[in-house]
Structure formats: structure tokens, C-alpha cells
Design goal:
The structure is a single chain. By secondary structure, this protein is an alpha/beta fold. The protein has two domains: about 35-120, no CATH class; about 145-385, TIM Barrel (Alpha-Beta Barrel). The protein is built from 15 helices and 17 strands. The strands form four sheets. Strands 5-6-7-8-9-10-11-12-13 form a nine-stranded mixed β-sheet. It is globular, with a radius of gyration of 21 Å. The structure holds iron/sulfur cluster (SF4). Iron/sulfur cluster binds near residues 159, 162, 242 and 272.
Length: about 425
């Protein structure tokens, strides 16, 4: 069947106006992101205070605190951490350091949670949200819409921990936590939009929505209910989160958060879990609580994770991860196995697409309920690859299609060049044959 012509995507806003110490000046959102947790004054001026700040000592943000737990950080690595942390924010929950990480520099999870020299060579400028529908239900920097049936809301740019590979680290993203006023602005517009009836799902993402104040999530609940009264079929809510891994104590202890989630009643949670050791008893307890908050309509629990060479790029490790999740009181379905972003992923962790597919093949020989979808995130949308899909080399790229049928050229390589410019990431997306370099 001939593919429908698709409209060209629009670039989003890249500049925000914020009050800096030099007065009212346009400031690149990238710079706000990069320094967000190191400039409390700026954070305060934006009216944003992470909910977790109310629990002093729970988040480790300095080398000194980190070395008090991970005593095997040597002087060379300490100097490296300081250098990287002076450029990119550093934050890791005490729970994760004490219960998941090993006091061992060879622990493959260290580079995911602790700043490393390689980040200085890879600025991580990325464009994954850059291509959106030209006509979105809501035109707002926090409303990301690549598909007519699904939108993603960037509730906050804060997570309890900051993954070193995070594609948000250096992205154009609305800074701080969404306010009541912004929620009203967004939902007032959604209620007026003629396209709202096409929406099937709203994804609450971030940062991490579970690190947002309960009052904010409570207000979402109110407005989503109201929006649902104006459409013929329910717009479901899905929450993307890693907080049950980073800092399950917040979910277990915060009455305001629990009450908000009870009202919000999400249809699903997509949990970002990368390694079997991240499946702790506290994670199980948090999942049980989140599940029980759904009452008679319990949310679907799904897990997704990137594949990382040297960390989890091995079917046995992934199977162990799924088994450990399955040993708890809540059923968690493996959902997306994410081929690592060529941009943003730390260079030593990158894989070729064929390498990711080989891992999927080993996983595919399991009951269907235990088999994830191999997904390639591209600026044009997600491409899903089957275990035995042919992936011919078309001259340095594979020709993939997003789930909406948009053709995308995707690199056959995983080559990392430390001098590579962010403008030449090994990806050449196309729409109707027009290439975006
Ligand atoms: S949990 Fe997700 S959004 Fe938060 S720092 Fe990690 S990758 Fe980024």
C-alpha cells in the first residue's frame, strides 16, 4: 500500500525567557538544564523546589558525601567527578548508592549514576523531541506530541537521581516543575481543541512525575477528569518513572503523593529499570503500593530499559531482571527493550542495531508475556524491530519505519568519535525522501 504523504515537522521553541542575575534576558533552556541543581537561586526564582528537597540527606549531591559511602573512589576519579560535576548536574539518591551500587570501581552501574570523564567528550545535545506534529492538541513547551493519538507532558525536569546517560541532560526542555497555572493553561486549551477526541493517552513524564509535589499531580487528576468529560472515550494516563528504583522511600512515605495518585488513577506505569540489582525489596514494596492505589482498577505495570554494552546487553542479564521483577507481588510486563540512543548514550555503552536484535532473538524464545518489543527511538517516532526482521545494509544505514510508517535511515554503526559534532550524529531521518541532517 502506498504510504500517505506526511507533513513536514515543525521545530519547537528553543529559547526561554527567564530572570537571571543579569536581569531579564533570554536564556537558552539548555543552560538552565545544565546548571539546574547547582543554582538554587535561579531555581527559587522560577518558583520551583523539588519535592525531595524536603527530605534532607536523602539525595547525595557532593563528592564528599559520595566518598563517605563509596570509599573506593580514588583521588584520580574524585578529580574527574569534580570536573564533570562542575559542568553537568550531579545527583544520586542515598538509597541507590547504599542499596544498589557496590563499593567497587569496576561496578558496571557506576558510570550510569556517577559522573565520568567521558561525559566531557560527549555533549549529549540531542533532538529526539525536535520533530512533532505540526498541529498539536495543545501548543505549549511542556506538551510534546509526535502522534495524533498520544501526547507526553513534561511535568518536571527533576528526577531523584540524574542518569549520566540521560537524554534530558542537555536538551531544550521547559525548566522546573509545572505550575497550577500552566496546568490550567494546557487543559483549557485541550478542552477547546477540535483534535482532542483523537487523543487516546496522555503520558506524564519529565524528569520524573513521581518526584513532583502531590498537589501538582492532584491538580492534574482534576483537569484530566474534566477533559475526559468532553470526549467520547477515555483518555488514559500513563506514568513514566524511575523513582521506585532511585528512591522508593518517597513513594512509600509521602501521603500527599499517594493521595494524588489515588485520584489520578493512571491506567499504566512504565518503570525504567536497567539492571537486576536495581530490583530491591523496596522497589517491590513501592510497586505494590502504586498498584493498590488503583483500587478495583489496578494499573498495568510495564518495564522498559535501554540496552547498554557492558551493563545489560546480555539476554541472561535481561532475563534475570525480568525474573526478579516477577518474584514480587505485582506482575510487571516487559515492554520496551530500547536500542541505545546514538546520541546521549555514553559512548562505551553503544551497540549496533544488529547487536540489539541478536539480544532480542535470545529473549524471543520465551512465553510471549515475557518478551519485550525492541524499539529504536528516533526523532521521527519509535521504530519497532522484530527478532528476525531482515536489516540489510543500504549503504551505511538501515531503512526503518516508525510505527506510523515514516521512513527513517538509521546508522548501521555504533562508532563513537570523540570529536564528532552533535550536528553529525550517525542518524539521517527522512520524511518522504527529504533528509534532515
Ligand atoms: S530517570 Fe529518565 S528522565 Fe530521569 S535522569 Fe534518568 S533517564 Fe533522565
Amino acid at each position: 500500500m502506498a504510504r500517505r504523504p506526511l507533513p513536514l515537522p515543525a521545530w519547537p521553541l528553543t529559547i526561554a525567557t527567564a530572570r537571571g542575575s543579569g536581569g531579564d534576558k533570554p536564556i537558552e533552556i539548555n543552560r538552565l538544564r545544565r546548571y539546574d541543581c547547582r543554582v538554587p537561586d535561579l531555581v527559587r526564582k522560577q518558583g520551583y523546589m523539588p519535592a525531595t528537597a524536603a527530605m534532607p540527606g536523602e539525595l547525595i549531591t557532593s563528592l564528599e558525601e559520595l566518598r563517605a559511602v563509596l570509599t573506593r573512589i580514588d583521588a584520580t576519579q574524585a578529580e574527574e567527578i569534580e570536573r564533570v560535576a562542575s559542568r553537568y548536574a550531579f545527583r544520586v539518591p542515598r538509597f541507590y548508592v547504599e542499596n544498589v551500587l557496590r563499593n567497587d570501581p569496576a561496578d558496571p552501574l557506576w558510570p550510569l549514576a556517577i559522573p565520568g570523564q567521558v561525559e566531557l567528550q560527549d555533549a549529549g545535545e540531542e533532538r529526539w523531541d525536535a520533530f512533532q506534529l505540526p498541529r498539536r492538541v495543545v501548543d505549549h513547551p511542556r506538551w510534546i506530541q509526535k502522534y495524533r493519538y498520544e501526547a507526553l507532558l513534561r511535568v518536571t525536569d527533576f528526577c531523584s537521581g540524574l542518569c549520566r546517560y540521560c537524554y534530558l541532560k542537555n536538551r531544550d526542555v521547559a525548566p522546573g516543575c509545572i505550575s497550577h497555572g500552566e496546568i490550567d493553561e494546557i487543559f483549557d486549551a485541550a478542552e477547546q481543541s477540535p483534535q482532542r477526541g483523537e487523543l487516546r493517552e496522555l503520558i506524564l513524564s519529565g524528569g520524573d512525575p513521581l518526584a513532583a509535589p502531590g498537589a501538582i499531580l492532584g491538580h492534574f487528576a482534576e483537569r484530566i477528569d474534566r477533559l475526559n468529560r468532553t470526549v467520547p472515550r477515555r483518555i488514559t494516563v500513563c506514568i513514566h518513572t524511575r523513582d521506585p528504583v532511585w528512591y522508593p522511600g518517597r513513594i512509600l512515605q509521602s501521603a500527599a503523593l499517594r493521595e494524588a495518585l489515588r485520584r489520578l488513577a493512571p491506567s499504566s506505569y512504565i518503570l525504567h529499570v536497567v539492571h537486576p540489582r536495581e530490583v530491591t525489596p523496596q522497589l517491590h514494596a513501592a510497586l505494590q503500593l502504586l498498584s493498590e492505589l488503583g483500587g478495583a482498577r489496578r494499573p498495568l505495570m510495564l518495564t522498559q530499559h535501554p540496552l547498554f554494552r557492558g551493563v545489560n546487553a546480555d539476554a541472561a542479564i535481561i532475563t534475570d531482571l525480568y525474573d526478579r521483577l516477577d518474584s514480587g507481588p505485582v506482575v510487571v510486563k516487559p515492554y520496551y527493550l530500547i536500542h541505545p540512543f546514538p546520541d546521549g548514550t555514553l559512548p562505551q555503552h553503544r551497540l549496533t542495531l544488529r547487536e540489539s536484535q541478536r539480544i532480542l532473538r535470545e529473549l524471543a524464545a520465551a512465553p510471549g508475556t515475557r518478551v519485550p518489543l525492541l524499539t529504536v527511538p528516533t526523532p521521527m517516532g519509535k521504530c519497532v524491530i522484530g527478532p528476525y526482521d531482515p536489516l540489510p545494509d543500504e549503504g551505511g544505514y538501515h531503512l526503518l519505519h516508525t510505527k506510523d510508517g515514516v521512513p527513517v535511515r538509521y546508522s548501521t554503526g555504533r562508532v563513537y568519535n570523540p570529536h564528532e559534532s552533535r550536528l553529525s550524529i550517525p542518524l539521517a531521518p527522512t520524511i518522504n525522501g527529504v533528509e534532515f541532517g
